[in-house]
Structure formats: C-alpha cells, structure tokens
Specification:
about 325 residues; binds 5'-O-[(R)-(carboxyoxy)(hydroxy)phosphoryl]adenosine
Length: about 325
C-alpha cells in the first residue's frame, strides 16, 4: 500500500499530512502563523515561522501516524500558487527528505488539492466546484482532463470582501465568521437594497463594498445581512448559469468561506430546488493543511511520470488548469 506524506506552506499555514492509497488519513498536523498586532501577512516573516516549526510538525505527523520516514513512499509538496518565500519552505523540506531518504518527490497545485480531497473523502463523481476563500472566488469544472475556471471574481475575493467590511465595522480578523453569526440575528424581510453586479460568468464585489461602507451606522445587523445575502446571491447566480451550461449534478464548496452557515443555507435551498447534490467537506480539510497535498501527490505519483529535482521549482502563479487529471 503506497503512503504519501504531503507538506503545505502556500500562505499562513505550515502543515504535514499523511494518507494511504485507500484514503485512510494517517496524520494531519499543522501550525498557523498569527500576529498579534493585526497586521497583514509579511511573506518573509511567515516563511521564518514555517522554517522554525517545520521539523516539529513533521515529527508530530510521523508520530501521529506511528510511522518512520522510511515507511513513506512519496514526498509531496505544495508547489504553488502562493507566496514565494512561504512556498520555498515546503519545497526545501520536501527536497531534503527526498534526497536524504531516496524517495520520489511530487509537486502539486494547492487549489487542485482542495478539490481532490473532496473526491477522495466524499462519494462524488464530477462536481461543479465553488472555490470561495479569502483571495479566491471561482467556479471550476473538470473539462476533459483538467479543471477549468469558468467564472470568477474580477476584483476582490469574497472572503476578503467580508474581512474588509468587518474591519470597517470594527471587528477583528478574520471578519467572515463574525458577520456569518450576525447574519442570523437579522430580519430577512428588512433587506436593504445594495448593488448587485454579475457580468456573464463573473462577479464584481467592490461596488457592493463601497455602498455598504457608506451605510454603516450604529445598528448594522440588517446591513450585514443584506451585504452577505447580496454577495452570496451573486455567487449563486453564476453557479446557476454554470450548471445549466455544464449539466453537472453535484456541487462541492471549498475554501474557508465553505464554513459559512449563511452560504450553506442559501445553497441548500438552491440545490433542493434544482435537484442537485450539495457537498460541503469537513472544515478540517477545507482549511489549508498537509493532508490535501499528500492526497493529490499520491494520485499524481500513482498515475503520472516521476519528476526530476529540476522540476521542483516553486511556481507562485501555478494555475489550476496546468494540472493533468488522468485518474
Ligand atoms: O481558505 P482560507 O482559510 O484562506 C485564505 O484564502 O486566506 O479562507 C479564509 C477566508 C477569510 O476571508 C474568512 O473571513 C473566511 O474565509 N471565512 C468565512 C467563514 N469562516 C472563514 N467567511 C464567512 N463565514 C464563515 N463562517
């Protein structure tokens, strides 16, 4: 039975996961960079965090799986997309292990890994993918042997939209989960009209943000409800159009915003009306972690030609449609 160890470090999280060919999760350990000052992410600082915890997280994962590094058959790492200095940590760690222990190495696309873990753990065949995270809002489908983005935000990602508005309202980061709670305290019948901007298969959120900012007052419950509801309605309109083009019968939601109860409620209604199966993977796999990397690395290792060390260069702009899906 082939066992894959995966290393994730595209952004704020350094993680090591281990999975076997049957989809058994053997380990999933991680450490997330935080800073108390409420500053944004400085890539160099984050990479130093990752370097400093890499050895410990690796050891914890092997201990959790009750394995030695020699029991591992393939070393997988997140090759992109992501922040260059952060990506270097998973690449360097993976190369070191591959050379020292004479193991094959596989570089994987982080976005594709989020989709493929859903396929491994849930009984899904050919879903339409909603990738909703801080920076990304994309509608993705598999076309022949690649995942293709057929609709997306043309300005800000939906998670960043929530975080920016929440910051204006005086909440901390990340603001998405806070707004998501307040959403359910509002009265849906008192919806406030806000700009709604869908252009074909794409969405633009900045007009919504600008208008909502101008309406901030002392009592903002109704505004928060209307703001989130409008953003999700735009997303679901694109999903609706994508389903009618592609005839897919399953939807999976991935990325941090998949944790949103408001989005779940709206999508459940939509899925029921359209007779579509909705899958929202457990949060433990929606958030960045090494397991998703181990999983995709294992599939590539079993179905594709091995890569050389020269091909392990990081690729901060690695596109979703550059990965061949031949399994
Ligand atoms: O995928 P992710 O962990 O990483 C980044 O892309 O950075 O997504 C983080 C995003 C943040 O913008 C956060 O506000 C949002 O996911 N988020 C949520 C919820 N939980 C996390 N947004 C709405 N409702 C939630 N419950």
């Amino acid at each position: 039975m082939t066992i894959s160890l995966g290393i994730e470090s595209t952004a704020h999280t350094f993680g090591v996961g281990i999975i076997d060919e049957k989809g058994n999760i053997l380990a999933n350990e991680k450490k997330q960079y935080t800073n108390k000052k409420g500053e944004g992410i400085k890539p160099y600082d984050v990479s130093q965090h990752h370097y400093s915890c890499a050895q410990d997280v690796l050891k914890q994962a092997l201990d959790q799986a009750n394995l030695k590094i020699n029991d591992i058959d393939v070393i997988s790492f997140s090759q992109g997309p992501g922040l260059g200095p952060c990506l270097s940590v998973s690449a360097t760690t993976a190369r070191t292990l591959a050379i020292k222990y004479k193991k094959p190495i596989v570089g994987v696309n982080h976005c594709v890994s989020h989709i493929e873990i859903g396929k491994t753990l849930l009984d899904m065949k050919d879903p339409l993918v909603i990738f909703a995270s801080g920076a990304n809002t994309q509608i993705i489908v598999k076309d022949e042997n690649r995942y293709k983005i057929i609709g997306e935000t043309i300005d800000i990602g939906i998670g960043n939209l929530f975080d920016s508005f929440a910051r204006d309202l005086g909440y901390g980061f990340p603001g998405g989960p806070i707004l998501d709670k307040i959403y359910f305290e509002a009265n849906p019948e008192k919806y406030i009209d806000l700009p709604y901007s869908v252009k074909g298969m794409d969405m633009a959120f900045s007009g919504l943000l600008t208008s909502a900012r101008k309406l901030i007052n002392k009592e903002n419950k109704q505004l928060i409800y209307s703001f989130m509801h409008t953003a999700y309605a735009m997303l679901i309109e694109v999903v609706d159009r994508a389903l009618s083009y592609t005839k897919k019968k399953e939807i999976i939601v991935i990325g941090g915003v998949a944790a949103s109860k408001a989005l779940k409620e709206m999508l459940e209604k939509f899925a029921k009306q359209h007779d579509i199966k909705l899958y929202i993977p457990p949060m433990v796999v929606c958030l960045d972690n090494g397991l998703i990397i181990a999983n995709l690395g294992l599939k590539q290792h079993l179905h594709q030609k091995p890569i050389t060390l020269e091909q392990t260069k990081i690729n901060p702009k690695f596109r979703t449609d550059q990965t061949i899906i031949n399994w």
